[in-house]
Amino acid sequence: MDVEETALLLYVRRRREFKRKKKQWWVHPYLADRCKKGQFVNIYADLRRYPDKFFNYVRMSVRSFDELLTLCENDLLKQDTILRKSISPEEKLFVTLRYLASGCTMRELHYSFRLGQTTLSTIIKEVCAVIWDNLQTCLSLPATANDWMKIADGFEKHANFPHCIGSIDGKHIRLIQPADSGSMYYNYKHFFSLVLMAACDANYNFIYIDVGAYGKSSDSAIFQETELYKKLISNTLNIPEPLQISENNPTLFPYVFIGDEAFGLSTNIMRPYGGNNLSAEKKIFNYRLSRARRYIECTFGILTNK
Predict the structure, then answer these.
(1) Of 283, 284, 286, 279, which is closest to residue 261 (Cα–Cα)?
(2) What 3-state class would DSSP assign to 55?
(3) Separation CA 18–CA 8 (nearest Å)
(4) Does residue 84 surpass a pLDDT of 80?
């Protein structure tokens, strides 16, 4: 028998021994003490008494946490069995927010919360899906012309840019390269990402989001695939009719979304003038548009800070 056959037989024998090996514990003794020594049991109640510490730990106020828990509790609740008690919705949400707030590893959470790594992974995916299902309906485009007018009034008041009904842009969300994805998620900034396309008002509130586009795609191409763009082209957004922007100028100007040079110019989409050799009037216009467009950059900044 040659060396290769011997090595193959040893490999097969070890695989059989590995498969026959039984688990030493049904629940590891370290994890079995979760209800007495886990981090949730030990610090959750104390953190709630100190709102600043609670916010620092999960990047969310106690009030916001309770509101989010109320929305998601029924979907996260599981039935207790004879063998074990289920993990409470409160603990599931708490550990998920800690994971999202800190970026710590599953192994670190495993030791601090005394939950299995596979269990943690399942919980985080479940909670994120439940949050999305329950909160996506809270974010909706204005339904009436009056609602759009209120947004336009905000931009005119704070940015001195009339007839602006939203600032739009894309944000690259860094991620680990998905398996077998090639260069689809590799962006021009030289890292892998998903794109969050969003629009906001003058109060730093998102009024529309679209997330999930490949990092390699341009903002203009992504925007043209969104529901917002399709409704804009089909004229089903109830955008107000064009009006004059001042009493001294009788010209009727449409209400527009504003973006950077990556977006195409159309009736309801405004972008700055391109090039360097611009007249004084065009430079002033670009400056004024930039003042209004920065609101989406600041909104992304607030989100990133969280």
Answers:
(1) 286
(2) helix
(3) 15
(4) no
Say what the pTM is: 0.77
Query: CA-CA distance, 96 to 302, in Å (whole number)?
Result: 20
Beta bridge partners of 256: 164
pLDDT of res. 214: 94
- The DSSP secondary-structure symbol of 137 reads G
- C-alpha distances (whole Å) from 63 to each of 48, 66, 198 are 10, 5, 26
> 134, 131, 66: which is closest to 100 by C-alpha?
131
* CA 244 to the chain's CA centroid: 37
- List the end-to-end C-alpha distance of the chain, in Å, as a whole number: 63
E-only strand ranges, the chain: 164-174, 193-200, 206-214, 243-246, 249-253, 256-258, 269-270
Asked which of 65-79, 223-237, 238-252 is least confident by mean pLDDT, the reply is: 238-252
Cα angle for residues 127, 39, 133 (degrees, 5° grid): 10
Helices 51-58 and 62-76, packing angle to 10 deg? 60
As a whole number of angstroms, the distance between CA 173 and CA 191 comes to 10
Within a 13 Å sphere around the CA of 25, how many CA atoms are in the beta-carbon half? 7
Q: Pairing between strand 269-270 and 243-246?
A: unpaired
What is the predicted pLDDT for the residue at 25? 67
Name which residue leads in pLDDT, 154 or 140: 154
Q: What are the domain boundaries of the chain?
A: 23-136, 140-305
pLDDT in tens, 161-192: 999 999 999 999 999 899 888 899 999 999 99
**Sign of the torsion angle spanned by Cα atoms 227, 230, 236, 241:** positive
The SS3 call for residue 206 is strand
Residue 20: predicted pLDDT: 55
Q: Which residue has the higher pLDDT, 3 or 125?
A: 125
The alpha carbon torsion through 205, 52, 174, 260 (nearest 10 deg) reads 30
For the CA atoms of 220, 208, 121, 19, what is the dihedral angle to 10 degrees?
Answer: -50
How far, in Å, CA of 24 to CA of 129, rounded? 33
